[in-house]
Write a structure and sequence with these properties.
Cytochrome Bc1 Complex, Chain D, domain 2, mainly alpha, binds heme C, 3 domains
């Protein structure tokens, strides 16, 4: 009895499977898809596949395999959107295929690129423009020539952002804080990337301290700050080539606890601190970021998968040219924050900061849809 029930159940499952496979292979019924679109989707995605408000994706001419996969992801809760969860719960497999087929069959929207709200500017160029305000003190390309003022050239971008935030929240003090307060997150990250890619200048031996005496004392610092003070960790500052007087005051600030960080222990004497500072000041540094990335360079990495010439039958890859800019930003942030699952996109977008997300989103939004 048990056996019979099992084989019956199996037969049913198998029959169900092959039926589904058959219908999945069949061409979509575009007319039926249009009826669904008109009734349930057009209010947001338009009957012509145009998102009706910023943040709603355009779907005209989108790859049908990708549309089907997205709808499935909403249905299964892998992508989260309240309206779509309810809508997709009602859609049969055939409905899904038909409505996806309908939107995929529409011609690409001609005018979205021209209507894109913002021209793409690379974080590097944005940062360079913003850095004009800092040059008076930190030097033309971030190489400070003023004793007591730190160089920013080549500095680690993660540390740069942390440092400015520390001034803003009062953990570190600085005069002229108003200027930093005017920077939004995108400005700040753009500045960080710009400075990170500037070449640090070589320094003459400073008037204070003895580099040779500082070298052995630096042994305990290298594990974090890198050999000879060239850091390879985004959160840890490079010390090589830094202004000696600034180094002295920074190390003393940790020693007297006016500047605090768990990693930083400083119990050296004044003489030792001067020697350590002299040692690091004369070391040759290198830029934390090697390339001055243009928007084209960035997009080149994306076009390996999203580009018009890519044929990849094993992966459903969305077209992103001419897509709504707000939606692109939202999607990239979701990958970045791990809120939208795709191991591939996650890997791609993780190193990308807010500044880069805005740049590439503006770039793709202003490309002609295809
Ligand atoms: C209430 C507005 C609304 C309605 C109605 C709606 N959508 Fe959407 N749709 C959205 C929004 C907003 C998003 C972006 C959600 C996100 O960030 O994941 C979206 C995303 C999508 C996506 C993913 C597109 C991409 O590029 O990743 C597909 C596919 C989609 N909708 C299909 C449909 C279909 C088919 C219908 C009708 C059955 C429909 N939607 C109805 C608002 C709507
Ligand atoms: C009036 C001179 C002046 C101007 C203008 C100025 N800074 Fe500074 N900056 C300083 C001084 C002085 C310090 C060191 C303060 C301290 O001891 O913590 C500093 C420190 C920093 C640091 C921390 C560096 C480190 O190694 O910890 C960052 C980052 C920074 N400034 C960014 C900027 C940016 C970005 C601008 C332009 C928007 C700017 N600064 C404009 C004088 C200035
Ligand atoms: C365990 C890791 C670690 C060790 C060891 C360490 N540091 Fe640091 N150091 C850091 C980190 C992280 C920061 C950034 C802290 C912050 O944000 O204030 C820092 C900051 C600094 C700064 C401030 C740089 C600037 O641009 O403002 C100086 C100077 C410095 N360290 C010198 C030293 C010296 C000298 C030694 C050895 C005697 C040393 N550090 C050992 C991790 C370390
Ligand atoms: C290795 C291949 C690959 C690379 C490289 C890649 N992507 Fe993707 N991308 C994908 C795949 C696959 C998806 C669909 C994932 C999913 O279903 O969420 C996707 C989805 C997206 C989406 C969501 C589109 C939508 O309609 O919802 C955006 C936006 C995007 N990628 C932008 C980019 C940008 C910008 C870059 C370059 C910084 C990039 N991608 C690099 C494979 C890639």
């Amino acid at each position: 009895m048990k056996h019979l029930a099992l084989s019956l159940a199996l037969a049913l499952v198998l029959a169900g499977c092959s039926e589904e496979q058959d219908s999945a292979g069949a061409p979509p019924d575009i007319g039926a898809g249009k009826t669904i679109a008109q009734a349930q989707c057009a209010g947001c995605h338009g009957l012509d596949g145009r998102g009706t408000a910023p943040g709603i994706p355009h779907m005209a001419a989108q790859a049908d395999t990708y549309l089907i996969e997205s709808l499935q992801a909403y249905k299964e809760g892998k992508r989260v959107h309240a309206a779509l969860r309810d809508l997709t719960a009602e859609l049969s497999i055939a409905d899904t295929r038909n409505v996806a087929g309908y939107y995929a069959s529409l011609p690409p929207l001609k005018d979205t690129a021209a209507m894109a709200p913002e021209k793409a500017v690379s974080p590097y160029d944005k940062g360079k423009a913003a850095a004009v305000a800092c040059a008076g003190c930190h030097g033309e390309d971030g190489n400070s020539k003023t004793p007591g003022i730190p160089s920013l050239a080549g500095q680690q971008p993660g540390y740069f952002v942390t440092a400015v935030r520390a001034y803003l929240d009062g953990t570190r003090s600085i005069s002229g804080k108003e200027m930093l307060r005017e920077l939004n997150n995108v400005d700040l990250e753009s500045l960080a990337l710009y400075y990170a890619s500037q070449t640090p200048a070589r320094r003459e031996a400073p008037a204070i301290g003895d580099p040779a005496a500082g070298e052995p004392l630096s042994a305990r610092c290298g594990g974090c700050h890198g050999a000879h003070g060239v850091s390879h960790d985004s959160a840890t500052p490079s010390l090589a080539g830094q202004d000696a007087q600034y180094l002295v005051s920074a190390i003393k600030a940790y020693r007297d606890r006016s500047r605090r960080h768990d990693a930083m222990l400083a119990n050296n004497t004044d003489k030792e601190i001067a020697d350590i500072a002299a040692f690091y000041a004369v070391q040759e540094s290198t830029a934390a970021e090697s390339a001055q990335m243009s928007v084209q360079d960035l997009a080149g990495k994306c076009d390996r998968c999203h580009g018009p010439d890519v044929e990849n039958p094993t992966m459903a890859i969305p077209k992103i040219e001419g897509q709504d800019r707000d939606y692109l930003i939202k999607a990239l942030r979701a990958y970045h924050d791990g809120k939208r699952g795709s191991s591939m996109m996650h890997r791609m977008s993780l190193p990308y900061s807010e500044a880069i997300i805005e740049s590439v989103a503006s770039h793709y939004a202003s490309q002609p849809a295809r």
